[in-house]
Amino acid sequence: MLARLDDPCPDPASRHRLVARRTVKTDSGFAEVSVNELESPLSRLFVRKDRHGKAWLSAEEFAAGERIRADFERAGLSPRISASWSMPVASGNGARHGAGDLSDFALDSRRRLEKALALLGHELANTVLDICCFLKGLEEVEREHSWPPRSAKLMLRTALRMLTVHYGLCAAPRKSAPMRHWGGPGYRPRGIALD
């Protein structure tokens, strides 16, 4: 007998979901929604624990990844598999729609995204885009870039930590304390005996 026939679960895809209820703000107030917490590689990393039972990504790092993904989506940069009905009908002169056809909302999102990606630099920006925005798996990113195993995970964490500071989701890392005293070549503080 086939294993799927013995499975009591009527929806086989439900094995790959972790559905949770969340409250989100809408125009008319707040609403309860169902969210698949395993939808993206970032959310799968967020619910995963390390060998000590600690979350691999902090809530701030996860929020930074979700924020850059939201800006990516709002900027209209996500790939489409079907026709977009949001753009006006072509004028017939063959001209493409440019930045002038984007809403202010999309332009603001695009500027925020460009600023965040510029902060990260080329390699980290590509890693964040691939994993957070294009929803590619870690192994796929490593294979595309010919990186060693588990390196995409570390690059992603580094980029997300930088984004938490950029977005103000956590305190900036402490800088070293200023120097209190500068001594000359023969200077020794009193009270310290030298052999």
Question: Can you walk through the features of this model?
Answer:
With 195 residues, the protein is mostly helical. It has a domain at 37-77 and 103-171. Helix content is 41%, strand content 8%. The chain is built from seven helices and two strands. Strands 1-2 form a two-stranded antiparallel ribbon. β1 (19-26) and β2 (29-36) form a beta hairpin. It starts with a helix and ends in a 29-residue tail after the last helix.
How would you summarize what this structure contains?
Helix content is about 40%, strand content about 10%. The protein has about 200 residues and is mostly helical.
Cα radius of gyration in angstroms: 24 Å
| Spans where pLDDT lies below 50 across 5 or more residues | none
Give a quick account of the main beta sheet: strands, pairing sense, barrel closure.
Answer: 2 strands, antiparallel
What's the total count of β strands?
2
Terminal Cα span: 84 Å
Helix content: 40-55%
Give me the number of helical elements. 7
Strand content: 5-15%
What is the N-to-C succession of helices and strands? Answer: HEEHHHHHH
Mean pLDDT: 79
Q: How are the strands of the largest sheet arranged?
A: 1-2
Structural class by secondary-structure content: mainly alpha
Bulk shape: elongated
Features:
195 residues, elongated, two-stranded antiparallel ribbon, 2 strands, mainly alpha
SSE diagram, text form:
Elements: H1 3-6, E1 19-26, E2 29-36, H2 41-47, H3 59-74, H4 104-120, H5 122-133, H6 138-145, H7 151-166
Antiparallel strand pairs: 1-2
Helix pairs in contact: 3-4, 3-5, 3-7, 4-5, 5-7
